[in-house]
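**Backbone shape codes:**
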Amino acid sequence: MNPWLALLVALVVGYLFGSFPTAYLVARRRGIDLRVEGSGNLGATNTFRVLGPWAGGAVLLIDLLKGAIPVELALIPVLPAGPTADASALACAIGAVIGHTASMWTGFRGGKGVATAAGAFFTLAPWGALPALAVWLLLLLTTRIMSIASIAAAAVLPVSLIVYAATHRDSDPRWATLIASVLLGAFVLWKHRDNIRRLRQGEEKALWS
């Protein structure tokens, strides 16, 4: 297969996995349309607020897998390889995040991509994802505000990749992975632009009291 066609296949596969409307389906089982409830966001946080922690936790887990599974398929590799190392996996990661945030099954509505991106990078670059997870968990527990934790984790991911490469001289820097982490981090920040506005105005709500 042409290597660029292989990248397109990986991107589409990632999108199809990411577009699975987890939060929408979980809420619809209870007769609720999350697009018009709470924040209107089809992600784990809004599910948590509207339906409670068990439903929110289930959505979070599945959204993580939506990023992890297609990346793992590319790394095995089950999918055809792209033109560079990890290229198909990166295409899957990007496709999955796009699919989660703009699912074709819900009128191109979705979540903000944090959990799906986390699942993809835990599979692709765990040494970068673990520090980001630690920051996310620490800030979530201390502030109880999901947007602060998510924004900080997105910012920490590329930094931790750089630090790992700098402190492990036998490690391949994997510049494509670093660039993808920066692009996905910027995308996550853009998706949180309303949250950032509310944070500035002191109006962002805690996830729990």
About this structure: The chain has one domain: 3-201. The chain has a mean pLDDT of 90. Residues 3-201 form one domain. The chain is about 70% helix and 0% strand.
